[in-house]
Amino acid sequence: MNDAMTLPRPLQILNGISALLFLAFAAFQANDIDHEIYHKASSLDAALWLAFYALIALLFALTFWRRPAPVWLLLAGALAFLLEMSRTGWGLWINLFGEKDFTMMQFQMTAEDPRVELTREFFGALIALVGVGILWWERRKFATAGDFRAGSEEKVDGSR
User: How far apart are CA 129 and CA 56, in angstroms?
Assistant: First the structure.
């Protein structure tokens, strides 16, 4: 199957910028393994976030080059980000409604107060999920040859 996308120029530029932004987000994950910044830093956690953001960067790069993002990767990404949001949502809840004032500017995550890092991770997953949503919408609206819309339209009007 030779899928292609006919994106308007502004969306193609937006996809290129988004690819670069998510690539930068992936690069920023290197500081998450710095034990001087984060208490009990997790190399696995940093690697997973790097992979999450790199995946979204790759998918935006594909659409920049007029190739639709594979549906299975979009679904896998959406599921991963929804799981991450459910895992970190309690930190956002405590940050918003807990005894301490809301903040995202704490410099060091500690076991006693993990709400700042969890809030940041929640919003990182939300940003990535929005990216997946944009890619899904672009695929449905602008993919041409051999996409799932063409097959379903032919079946609806009875010509198949």
Answer: 9
Distances, alpha carbon 94 to alpha carbons 87, 114, 122, 151, in Å: 13, 10, 12, 47
The residue written with tokens 């405590």 in the block is: 94
Tokens of 1: 């199957």
Spatial contact of 106 and 116, defined as CB atoms under 8 Å apart: yes
For residue 143, list its beta bridge partners.
5
Is the CB of residue 120 less than 8 Å from the CB of residue 104? yes
Q: Which residue has the tokens 């996308």?
A: 5
SS3 state of residue 144: coil
In 3D, which of 150, 153, 92 has the Cα closest to residue 126? 92
H-assigned helices in 65-114: 71-97
- The per-residue pLDDT for range 54-84, each reduced to its tens digit, is 999 999 999 999 899 899 999 999 999 999 9
Amino acid at 79: L
